[in-house]
Automatic annotation (TrEMBL):
PANTHER family: 2-NITROPROPANE DIOXYGENASE, 2-NITROPROPANE DIOXYGENASE-LIKE PROTEIN
Protein name from the UniProt record: 2-nitropropane dioxygenase
Top-level lineage group: Bacteria
UniProt entry keywords in alphabetical sequence: Dioxygenase, Flavoprotein, FMN, Oxidoreductase
GO molecular function, one term: dioxygenase activity
Originating species: Altericroceibacterium endophyticum
Entries under Gene3D superfamilies matching the protein: Aldolase class I
Alphabetized Pfam families for the sequence: NMO
Length: 337
């Protein structure tokens, strides 16, 4: 018997796939999703995901080993597809028999899905269109995350509510689809589950949990912020396509525009090729996020946060956040009879 029978019934497929009690993932957050938060999420009945970000294979190796010391529950690893050492990072996941690998940041390069499945792990992917999602499922992907523009970090152009209405009726009957972006309370989880989602993924709500190692000043900035403070970066030069990033507005927001102008200037003088220019932008974000999360420089660093930041008011243990979400979902489903 469970405390949340209606929610668990709707989460059954997702929870079985993840090997968890609840089908709630904490999406990987660079610098934030390290062993402490990941283990706390998994120990709390959810599914933690290590953010590999720009880590080297050796660092990832140590992070997975460290996480295993803190939990014996399942957790995943998020790899960025444009990482130059992707093949070696996949091999590190294989060495540790990681059960689930999330491929983020672009279309998985040829051979990557096969390499992950080769050591028996499940592959979770992102896709911006239904056609691409179907193609990825045909090529062996086991589950999909649809992530709306309300989310924190790098985002696409479409809102979660619209993605859910497009993707879930088309895919959820035959495939596992998890919904992410802007989820702050359990009532929203109940809604997406009823629409056919296998589960949900949250980031912003977990970023400031007690177990998160984010700097106290980073957490304070979240507690003070409202939904409207989590704004998207703008593209200042048409020649340099940058993926929008949602973060709390600060001096770093303007610094990013300066950085873009600098990189675009180097494109003009052919000092940089387009691929290298885009990589410089991504390295900039990784560095800026580190400044805020690790060093606590909340003025100049990047405070990546989703619009649900307005619902993050205080530090709470992960287990309480998860049980609160489950209780809200259950109450909403019960009210419907
Ligand atoms: C601070 C921060 C860092 C993030 N870093 C990553 C990342 O490295 N890789 C990734 O795939 N998603 C990243 N995300 C997105 C989350 O995994 C998750 O999908 C998103 O936060 C869900 O939306 P929400 O913020 O509205 O809950 C990040 C989000 C935040 C808030």
């Amino acid at each position: 018997m469970t405390d949340f029978p209606k929610t668990h019934e709707l989460m059954r497929r997702g929870a079985e796939f993840l090997g968890t009690e609840h089908a709630i993932l904490c999406g990987a957050m660079s610098w934030v999703s390290e062993r402490n938060l990941v283990a706390a999420i998994s120990n709390g009945g959810g599914f933690g995901v290590i953010a590999c970000g720009a880590m080297t294979p050796d660092l990832l190796d140590a992070e997975i080993a460290g996480t295993k010391e803190l939990t014996d529950k399942p957790f995943g690893v998020n790899l960025i597809t444009m990482h130059p050492d992707l093949t070696d990072l996949i091999a590190v996941c294989g060495k540790h028999k990681v059960g689930h690998v999330v491929l983020a940041g672009g279309i998985p390069p040829k051979g990557s899905v096969e390499a992950i499945k080769g050591f028996g792990a499940k592959v979770i992917v992102f896709a911006p269109t239904i056609a691409l999602a179907k193609k990825l499922f045909r090529s062996g992907a086991d589950a999909l995350v649809i992530e709306g523009m309300e989310a924190g970090g790098h985002i696409g152009p479409v809102s979660t509510s619209v993605l859910a209405q497009e993707f879930l009726p088309a895919l959820a009957e035959d495939h596992l689809v998890f919904v992410a972006g802007g989820i702050g309370r359990g009532e929203a989880i109940a809604g997406y589950l009823e629409m056919g989602a296998a589960g949900v993924q949250l980031g912003t709500r977990f970023a400031c949990a007690t177990e998160s190692i984010a700097h106290p000043d980073f957490k304070k900035a979240f507690f003070r912020a409202n939904a409207r403070d989590a704004i998207t970066s703008v593209q200042v030069d048409a020649r340099l396509p940058v993926i929008p990033v949602r973060a709390l507005k600060n001096k770093g927001t303007e610094a990013f525009n300066v950085k873009q102008r600098d990189v675009a200037g180097k494109l003009d003088t052919e000092e940089l090729a387009m691929g290298e220019a885009q990589l410089q932008i991504e390295r900039y974000w990784a560095g800026a996020l580190r400044r805020a999360v690790v060093d606590g420089d909340v003025e100049n660093g990047s405070l990546m946060a989703g619009q649900s930041v307005g619902m993050v008011k205080q530090e709470e243990p992960v287990a309480e956040i998860i049980s609160g979400l489950m209780a809200e979902s259950e109450a909403a489903l019960t009210k419907r009879g």
